[in-house]
Amino acid sequence: MTTKTAARAAKPATMAQALQRAMRDAMAEDPTVHIMGEDVGTLGGVFRVTDGLAKEFGEDRCTDTPLAEAGILGTAVGMAMYGLRPVVEMQFDAFAYPAFEQLISHVSRMRNRTRGALPMPLVVRVPYGGGIGGVEHHSDSSEAYYMATPGLHVVTPATVEDAYGLLRAAIASDDPVVFLEPKRLYWSKADWSPEAPTAVEPIGKAVVRRRGRSATLITYGPSLPVCLEAAEAARAEGWDLEVVDLRSLVPFDDETVCASVRRTGRAVVVHESTGFGGPGGEIAARVTERCFHHLEAPVLRVAGFDIPYPPPMLERHHLPGVDRVLDAVARLQWEAQS
Amino acid sequence: MEEVDSLQQRSSTVQEPPATVAYRPIPPPAWKPRTDPGPLLPDAEPFRVLGTDAVASADPELLRRLYAELVRGRRYNAQATALTKQGRLAVYPSTTGQEACEVAAALALEERDWLFPSYRDTLAAVARGLDPVQALTLLRGDWHTGYDPREYRIAPLSTPLATQLPHAVGLAHAARLKGDDVVALAMVGDGGTSEGDFHEALNFAAVWQAPVVFLVQNNGFAISVPLAKQTAAPSLAHKAVGYGMPGRLVDGNDAAAVHQVLAEAVARARRGGGPTLVEAVTYRIDAHTNADDATRYRGDGEVETWRAHDPILILERELTERGLLDDEGKREAAEAAETMAAALRERMNADPVLDPMDLFAHVYAEQTAQLREQAAQLRAELDAESEA
Predict the structure, then answer these.
(1) Strand, coil or helix: B246
(2) Which of B22, B137, B263, B377 is the most exposed, fewest CB within 10 Å of its CB?
(3) What is the predicted ipTM?
(4) How far is A79 from chain B (nearest CA, A)?
């Protein structure tokens, strides 16, 4: 930190504020950055993430669109073709499904289809995941669908600092980025100075959030706080857990993840998304392929159940919590070592 | 018993309204139509120029140019279809019979405008000036798009139906935001009008008053499904009214009429008048593609009636009657078309040179570590292949 930065006292800021600041700074620096979506203008978004942007930059730069996700993303494609950098909001995870055809048939492959002549520098912001008591279609974790589509970057911040830094990086990227915002962390706070925001590493770098020697918890987005809490609780059991925050699912940081697993010899992947066909299967396979001879136990997964996202009064049974993570850690064949 | 009692009790508490006060439903506050639908409605009959009084005011030079382009276009369709039989093209969706729409679409645009073609609109792209071989890259199968869309201002040929329409809206909207007087012309077939993206594109365009023209080529069939099973609308042009934009109905085989309607719509969009939906009524003389058997879903008689309304035939008659085209002119047009076809044939007979490493070159601006690994794997496989 420079002295200039230190002079500006950090104060509690929420992830939603950091995301808003990221868009504001990007819009101020680059006149081609446009925000668009349902309710992003006058209302400032249902989560207030785009609050004030329409007032500050005008409705042409922060546009309330008709309620039509395929149309929002489809018109954003055309805008990107003409040199703009659209940042599209999908409001809720499951609301993005009508836009899948545009995302998969056009956004993800326009660069490839045109041999690099037509890049798609756009960001699709998707508030995702559960834990906020949302009714049906408001809590899906749809990252596996995006991960399965070549041409997309899939990014998900878990901290206030990362929310700012990764969104800035996503907007600056010349490729399309699906930016998954863990909506139950929107109001999580950190001491963070919006006047001197921290830069992050480029998209595609995981980070070790907690050092440990016994086992690695591999996680991202809404499950990071769960894993950090589990790691604290695990100390009482004599386990010293390392926690890796992926930050980016595509591209995947094999290096950071595998370096950690080789150090600890054990790994658990933790996410809210369903286990079957979910991101954890891919991650476990990658880790096994690269770290087999360092592993003391199979790579385990703690995921949401393989069910449609449950109603709010039952969601606590579905979401992987601290106890379920600790149970998995307990199953990591510790006996064989002792 | 309890139930009956409670019912009786309830009915006895209902107050009879006083006979002097009549119930009046409250009207919704301040409702009024957003726009007068009258001017938006299409004409009852498709607009025509050829064979009508309107032809007197048509520019003879334009008519001659349209004729030459139609003849060239017909030859292009025939040549491309022949190339499928020789195995040079994987597939070709012909626009034989629809050349007037394709050619007029290209000629209605200025250089700075953008064309958003569907997979069937190769000819429109060629008539706009795209290299015929580059236009066929997708259909030959050596890559998905053979040209830089920005260079020609032609979006990639879109295989998914109607999904390119919102792109046209977004591009036109962006151009207007930047202060450029660029118009986007988006092409779709009758089947494509049933897709959700068609609806969303038209709605966005009208709400944003984007400088876009939508051209529906109603050629009668979505592969095998006839229009009657596609829509219950009076015409596809009528759909415009619901979005708040004008709908125009035009004879799609009358090149002069299609050009005039499109040119007017483009001019209107350029001066800030907003989008237009144009339905061109035409007919697909060939099958859906070379892989389709059209005899399974339509009779020869129907095709023959449309052959009598062939776009080249009716324009040629008009030009001949008006003394704008003689045998010499016809021969010139035919020779020019033949020259184009011979050149296309020759160039398409050369095997394209492919670099398999291109598979990884343009997935991302910067290759991911995962793709670098896979590219190395393919490189090794190729090296082993060449050594063997």
Answers:
(1) coil
(2) B22
(3) 0.94
(4) 5
